[in-house]
Amino acid sequence: MGKSAQSEKPLLSHGNGTRGRKLNIKPYLFLIPSFLIFGLFVFYPFAKTVALSFTWTDFTGKAIEFAGLDIYKRIFTNERFINTLVVSLKFAAMVGAGSFLVGFLLAALANERQRFCQLYEVPFALPMAIASAPAATIWFMIYSPNGIANYLLNTDVRFLLDARVAIFAVALVTIWLNMGVSFIFLLTGMRNVPAELLESASIDGASKLVRLVRIIIPIASPQIFFVIFLNLISSFQSFAQIRLLTQGGPENTTDVLVYSIYRYAISDGRFETAFAQSVVLFVIILCFTLLQFRFEKKGVYY
Amino acid sequence: MMKKYLSGGLFYLLKLLIAVVIICPVLYAISASFMTNSALASWPPNLIPPKVVFTNYQMALRSVPLFKFLINSLIVCAIVITAQVITASCTAYAFSFFEFKGRNILFMVVLATMMIPQDATIIANFLTISQLKLTDTYVALVLPYLTGAMGIFLMRQFYLTVPKELKEAATIDGCGDLRFLLNILMPISIPSIASLCIYVFIQTYNQFLWPLLVTNTMDKRTVQVGMQMLHNSEAAEYGIVLAGAVMVLIPSIVVFIIGQKYLIKGMTAGAVKG
Fold first, then answer.
1. B237: nearest CA in chain A?
2. Over the Cα atoms of chain A, what is R_g?
3. B65-227+257-269 sits in which CATH class?
4. CB pair distance less than 8 Å for A106 and B114
5. If you write DSSP's letter for every residue of A105-135 in order, what string do you get?
């Protein structure tokens, strides 16, 4: 979160200027703890991941021999990895669209404050407190052959074993997990709309729908873009629900990128492949982040 | 007028109904965790236990040391929260109350950490931990999470609203930096610190992949990994797994309900500039 702090004005000056004085080392001392952790567990592993994606490694992850682009050539000609990419993008599209739409609907419903609104606002947001592992076990039961899902839909489907529906089943769990966060951000965006603006519009005879489309959506557009990209990015980080519900199956239809990375590194000990795939993950998320910055700048209509 | 009240009431009921639909997986898990195996297997499925039994909870605690895992999770959360409050406050303090060479570049470095997704570096971090022979320790569980950009932004956001005269006055009175931070700045930033604590608690408590990678004995596992063990070991008897899921969910849900106001404020404070 806190993504767009970047777009802020230059840092405010709060005295203790350095000009014409000797270097004050105090601020640097305050920075040491954080930067030590960032160095050791963000930048060093990132550099290592990139470096080892060009190097053959042994089953403990030690470099053996320089590989050039061979590892990338190998993963991009591997059908299973292409499938992983397709599945990940499909999954991201489903989760991105689904949790945005549900979050938007909930925020539009909750936008007008009512008395005792906490009674529904807290449940609307609650899924964000729920961990994916227990969520997966609950949905496993709901999806079971004689579970609630089959009963309500009046079907006899093996949701997690049927290659046609498994990805939808897992996406639905992820949408459920993510919609609380979407709801919160979208509600904040909608409540940024000045009340006078809505009042004068309704005096002019604008209906609720017109007010939503013409006033609320444009003003909340930064939050809308933010939530769409947040969901796209976080869908790439889904792991526990895949691991517990489908293990990438049936027929690799839920074999998303992070699960694939885990499988290569931990189950197969093929670290170079896992590292190259991690770099691909980084590049995909970077593209989304850059797109997000562009949209956040461009997409605001006042 | 009457009509307006009536439609308001109906609207409220509609929203309550949707709220129930949203949390119904959790409600169903609670209900099913009190069912016998035969009640769980019946068709049509039972929504309310025909006979309430507590054996699933006893069995869940017996088949996996969930209680021990819960303690582990809480210890990890306590360490990570304490560390993040300290590191975020110190870092934000330097960025908001000092001018120094390289400040903008260093701030960009903090921003850059957000561009590198955790999952892209998690395997390399796992190798670091095993090379340092730290596997299966609390240190391994907490080390990468002792600081975070989100906390730094959150604290900085608040510090920038503090008038610089406060610092100047404190300096004139002979108050050093550490004392200013501890005795003046931190007490007035308690709402922001509360936001940070709740956010970090839910994040850390719900972590799955990292504890799965760096723990491999019962001794240091966290509840989320325990959840997977339960899911795999007792797949046949689902009442037990659901009882486990309910127990694992309770702490995060309770913290969320108590702290949601702070959590939401913290999440939305730095996120999007409207």
1. A141
2. 24
3. mainly alpha
4. no
5. HHHHHHSS--TTTHHHHHHHHGGGGS-HHHH
